[in-house]
Amino acid sequence: MAEITATLLNFLKAIGKYRWYAVAITWTIAVIGWAVVLRLPNQYEASARVYVDTQSILKPLLSGMTTMPNLDQQVVFMRRTLISRPNVERLMRMVDLDVKAKDSKEHEKMVDELISQIKIAGTERDDIYTITYNASNPKLGKDIVQSLLQIFVEGSYGGKTQDSEKAVQFIDNQIKSYEEKLTAAENSLKEFKIKNMGLLPREGGGDFSGQLIAATDALSQARLELAEAEQARNAIRRQISGEPAKPGKSGEVVEIPVTDPELENRIATTQKNLDALRLQYTEQHPDIVANRRLLDQLLAQKADLAKNKKRSADPGAGYSPMLQQLSVSLSQAEAHVASMRTRVEEYAARVARLRTQSGQVPEVEAQLAQLNRDYQVNKENYQKLLERRESARLSGDLSSATDMLAFRVIDPPIVPTQPTGPNRLRLFSLVFAGALAAGIAVAFLMSQLRPTFLSQATLREVTGLPVLGSIGMNWTAEQTVRRKRRLAALGVSVLVLFGIYGAGMAAILSHPTL
């Protein structure tokens, strides 16, 4: 404890040696600081409070029909970007601050000052935001807060509307592009179908292999029916040729057609061979051409033979009801055989054509599938784009609706009649305290730069030598008077400094707008 007391006494003695330096520094800093504080312009804080209502009945009603904008995120984004440089420059134009800037450097300085002075407070949970601005001109502060409030409201509406318009424009361009692609795909598909009409699968008829199998089955069925018709016809012929004579008029001569059973058999055999060849080859094959020529010759012989008629030995043959009925049946059977033969030929030609085209069908089907796939993809994308365009338009209309995002001004922009700053009482005191601390610090620093021994103990500790004694100062009367005067002047200067401080504080309290 004694050491601490000794150290403190030495510290006070060191400062006391350079007390006039401390007083001079304290007076200089205090006077200059107080003058600056008193000359600081008054600051008026303009403020406004706004409530953003993001709850709307349109949200549940239009949910699923369009893209609902995230209003909370939109408002938060506007709050965080409200004091951006573009918005502040717009604010300067709205309140005519830009005309006061003489050059670009001064303009940038004004922008930076505005950014530092504008404050936005609030919570996303309550959706209540406060905009404040400190200005030396009350009217200017109110105009700036009013303009900021306008930018805040307009920015919340305009951003989403502009995004929606750009989205609709982009989708329109894509729709035009897909319309061209869809038209080109339709034309390509139409031209391909016209070019390959016979090779394309029919609707409900299956693929090409199914058509070939169906044609082959139909040909086999037609041949079976032809064979049955020929057998029925031959049976009728045999009945006509071997029917016994029926009673009739005596002496009447009846002529009947001449038939050759061997010729009929040859014609039937040739027809069967020709049908079998047609299942394997085309009509231009040499075997088919030779058999067809032979069949034509046999049919010609049959026709010539039919022209020669012989007299019937049956005197009542001309009046036989059974013969007449058989003749009618034979005519019907011949017609049926002819129609069945035509059907067989048609089916055989169809099967031959399908077999000839069977090599081209896989490639045609692959190309058709590719064309249909491209057309379907373009069509689906086109339909989706149409739906998205309507959704984007509805979303844009929804974003611009005032019911979706309502702004309610709780407190309009106001400016208090009394200045809110600067806090001269606090600054005045801080200047005084700083001046005192600076004076003491200067005195202590000088004592350290120009050290002296203020006691025997300090001299003994520094030198390490024993101190035998000390010589006291013998003050004369004149020196004593001079010393007292200096001490009185020091006390008066300190008291005057404190008096000025007290007077300044009283003046500030009595005149807040000082």
Automatic annotation (TrEMBL):
Residues 366-445 form the Tyrosine-protein kinase G-rich domain. The chain crosses the membrane at residues 20-40, 427-447, 487-509. Keywords: Coiled coil, Membrane, Transmembrane, Transmembrane helix. InterPro entries: Bact_polysacc_biosynth/exp, GNVR, XrtA_polysacc_chain. Residues 168-239, 330-388 form a coiled coil. This is XrtA system polysaccharide chain length determinant.
